[in-house]
Each structure stands twice: as C-alpha cells, then as structure tokens.
Amino acid sequence: MDQYPLISKVTKEQKLSWRLFLLFSVLVLSILPLYRYQNYGGWPIGELVYDHTRLGKAFFNLEIPDSDPGVVASVSYLFDPFDVLIGTFGMLFGIRFAALLLPSLLGIITLILLYNILGQFLPSPRYHLLAGLFVLTNPVFLAVFSEATNLTFISTLVTSGIYFFLRKDRLWKLSFLFFATLFFYPLFHVLLVLLLLMLSTGHEKKKHAFILSLFLIAGIIVSLFIKNNLFYISAPSLLVFIQQLFSDLGGKFGFSIFGMFLSLLGLFYLIEQKKVTHTIMFIIGLILLFIIFISPIYGIYFIPLMSIAATYGFFSLLKREWKLHSLQNMTLFLLILGIIFSGTSVMSRNATAAPSSEEVSA
C-alpha cells in the first residue's frame, strides 16, 4: 500500500488523516520548548546537550578535543556528526535556542517519515492515524525527543534510512547515506537496522535488501577493526530494570503499561489471523532480547512495531461483540486515557527537569 502524503495523490480521507496527525505532532512537540522558554529562560534539559554544544562550537573554531569531555575517565574523542549538526544550528540561531529547538524539529521530521512508513503496513487511514498517534504519545519517543542527544539524531537517521529504502524509485539509494552515518555510533544500531530491514522488506525489495545488508555487514567488520564500541550496555538489577522498562513506574525510556497491553492484544490478534509469520515473531523476539539484556534506551526501535500491534489491538476490541456496550466503551476509554497519561507524565517530568537557569549560571 503506497502512502506518501507529501508527494503523491491521496484520497480526501487520507488527506484529513495526514493533516490531523501533522497538527497533533507540531502541537505536542512544541509544548516542552515553549514551557522551558517561558519558565526556565530557554535553558534545554539534560547534561549531555551542553557537551554536544561545546564540541559543536569547538569544531567550527577548529579546536578538535583529544578526549571526550562528557566522560569522567580519559577516553579518546570519537567524531560525532550530531556535534556538527548542533554546532551548525548554534551558529544560525544561538547555542541555547538550537539545543532547545533541535529535538522537537528532529522529532517532527521523524514523525513525518514514520507516518509514511506506517501507511505501507496498515489497511486504512483510520488505522494509519491511530498508529501515528500511538507513536506520538509513546513515552519512549517523547523522552528521546525531549533532550538534544545523539540518540535523538540516531533515531532520525534510522527512520530516514528505512523511509528511503522502502521507496520504489531511485531515491532508495539515499538509504545508504543515512545508514552509513550510523557507523560513527555503537554498532548495535546497525545490527538493529538489519533486523528491521528483514521485517519491512517485501518480495519486490529483496534484491535491494540483500545489497544493503552486505553493505552494512561489511561496514560492521571494518568498524570492529577501527573501534571497539559495539554496544552501549547497562546491567541494572532485575527490580531496577522492570522500573526502567515502564514509564508509569518512573523509567526514563520506559513504555506505557497500557500501550504494552494493547500491543500484546494486537499481536495475539495478528497471530490468530495468520498475519504474523514465524520469521517476524523471531525477529521481534530478538529485538526484545536486545532491549532486555543490553539497555532500555534501545526501546526506541520497538516503537513502530508496537504502534502497529496496538492499533490492531484497539480495533479488535472495538469490533468484538460485547454483551455490555457500556463495558466496552469504558474499557477502551480507560486504555486510551492510560496511554495519554503515560505520555503526559513523561512530558511533565521532562519539562521540569534540571538544569534551571540558576543552576546553569552557578
């Protein structure tokens, strides 16, 4: 199903779905920058952003550091394209404004591309819009695109690469450029891209997928001889990991419990309808294992799969014949309310996060 709202003819219902999604995306991702500008003097949240902005500024002053200032131990600095990006925006708009605005701008770009990608795997504009809104309100997505870090930039790179790869014209070759940029980061991102390509590839794209996979595998082999940063690994205790896995329990990069419930319900529905093959189940299981045993921050890669499954889960509940319609309506209302609450709680937590203008000036 081809759906590229920005560049091709679409139906009236598809246009309405696209416009609503774009409006919601801009509104939601504008809340945090406006709040920080109004109440915190425009200072962006987080600590890493200040290291990135300093490095970006140093690049344009031709002052390349020998070690990474964001690491306590003496670690050699590895070039990060995000430093150049935020440094460029800093020269144009000022460092503080660039660090505050860039996450929302990258988030909107990512949402636009993801919306186009999701449209190729869903049967109607109603499913398409709901899946997009599930992405927008996902706590992991909101956490990643609240703070200017290289994970924000990596997420946009991966989405851009998959978007261009799925195109059926010559522009698909641009995917090589976006995926090649990933080699400046831990190679685990490239491994996850390989898994996602296996999920998103139709029969007509198998040749392109094979060529791109060879390119990525060759890049991994070469990179292993140059650097040793395959993974970003965190090994918390089981209790801490469970807390990190769900935003409702305080996890910074955690999923919504209600969203996870809908996703599991949708997965069971897809299995029952024989729309999910054993290969897809195996790949989804691998991605989940990576998230569980390596770090919850990689949950960002699970969002498109989760949003598609949650959409089918929601409509399976909606179409199911209930003996009590009031109970059906109450169930759906509570699920949607819980998903919205998870997203708004993350936004509220991030909006008031350190540092304040007083802490920065001190």
Could you please describe the fold and organization of this structure?
The protein is an all-alpha fold. It has helices at 12-39, 48-60, 81-93, 95-118, 125-136, 139-144, 150-166, 174-181, 188-200, 206-226, 238-245, 257-272, 278-293, 303-319, 325-351, 357-361. Mean pLDDT is 79; it is low at 1-8.
Mean pLDDT: 79
Question: Which structural class fits the helix and strand makeup?
Answer: mainly alpha
Strand content: under 5%
Order of helices and strands: HHHHHHHHHHHHHHHH
Cα distance spanning the termini: 55 Å
The major beta sheet can be summarized as: none
Q: Oligomerization state of this entry?
A: single chain
Q: Using DSSP, what is the number of strands?
A: 0
Chart the SSEs and their pairings.
Elements: H1 12-39, H2 48-60, H3 81-93, H4 95-118, H5 125-136, H6 139-144, H7 150-166, H8 174-181, H9 188-200, H10 206-226, H11 238-245, H12 257-272, H13 278-293, H14 303-319, H15 325-351, H16 357-361
Helix pairs in contact: 1-4, 1-5, 1-15, 2-3, 3-4, 4-5, 4-7, 5-14, 7-8, 7-9, 9-10, 9-13, 12-14, 12-15
List keywords for this structure.
16 helices; single chain; mainly alpha; 362 residues; globular
Question: Brief overview, please?
Answer:
The chain has 362 residues and is an all-alpha fold. It has helices at residues 12-39, 48-60, 81-93, 95-118, 125-136, 139-144, 150-166, 174-181, 188-200, 206-226, 238-245, 257-272, 278-293, 303-319, 325-351, 357-361.
